[in-house]
Design brief:
The structure holds 2 protein chains of 2 kinds. Chain A is mainly beta. Chain A is 0% helix and 47% strand. In chain A, the strands form 2 sheets. Chain A has a 6-stranded mixed sheet, with no helix packed on it. In chain A, strands 1-3-8-7 form a 4-stranded antiparallel sheet, with no helix packed on it. The chains are: A mainly beta, B mainly beta.
């Protein structure tokens, strides 16, 4: 059974950093791109970025709103994808989801809440 | 960025009756590889998003056959043939053909 479990969320002050993890199981992690999305309170879904698998170059794409502040990486040996979030802003407050694949986004984790507030 | 326009905003439906949601994109969603990466996702209260339909009309594993997707190019539709109580939630179309990936504004399906 495919499972994705996000962790690392919490309350953080503006300007600080946080690293989210998404631990995958139930499939060959290294075969897939992995994508991050978020949903701010009362708002719709927003794409954050994704990382291709190594066979496709392992390259990364980011949404304009997070480019230069957020970094996605992966550890295929541990089946984990990370989202390093720096220079956090109040508008980054959201539930963050990781998903498998970059076009189908077939499986979603339960999400982890990030609250950016002083 | 590709703008995804979803209608209606809200869809009150009688149990057992059909529901239909429209999604229109500002540009064609046909990828250079020939696929059209248009998906439909369901958000139920307190739950993460759930993929219902991918590549316009492919039902994801475990999705009831009362859900169907259709369309081409820039116009797409999600239909629920007979709405059940468990279908209450917000439905989003999403395009993954162009960067950045973008979503429609959502359609709230509720029971009359």
């Amino acid at each position: 059974e495919v499972q994705l479990v996000e962790s690392g969320g919490g309350l953080v002050q503006p300007g600080r950093s946080l690293r989210l993890s998404c631990t995958a199981s139930g499939f060959t992690f290294g075969d897939y791109a992995m994508t991050w999305f978020r949903q701010a309170p009362g708002k719709g879904l927003q794409w954050v970025g994704f990382i291709r698998n190594k066979a496709s170059g392992g390259t990364i794409e980011y949404a304009a709103s997070v480019k230069g502040r957020f970094t996605i990486s992966r550890d295929d040996s541990k089946s984990i994808v990370y989202l390093q979030m720096n220079s956090l802003k109040t508008e980054d407050t959201a539930v963050y989801y990781c998903t498998r694949d970059r076009v189908t986004t077939d499986y979603w984790g339960q999400g982890t809440l990030v609250t950016v507030s002083s | 960025d590709i703008v995804m326009t979803q209608t209606p905003l809200s869809s009150p439906v009688t149990l057992g009756q059909p529901a239909s949601i429209s999604c229109r994109s500002s540009q064609s969603l046909v990828h250079s590889d020939g696929n059209t990466y248009l998906s439909w996702l369901q958000l139920r209260p307190g739950q993460p998003p759930r993929l219902l339909i991918y590549k316009i009309s492919n039902r994801f594993s475990g999705v009831p056959d009362r859900f169907s997707g259709s369309g081409a190019g820039t116009d797409f539709t999600l239909k629920i043939s007979r709405v059940e109580a468990e279908d209450v939630g917000v439905y989003y179309c999403m395009q993954a053909t162009h960067f950045p990936l973008t979503f429609g504004g959502g359609t709230k399906v509720e029971i009359k």
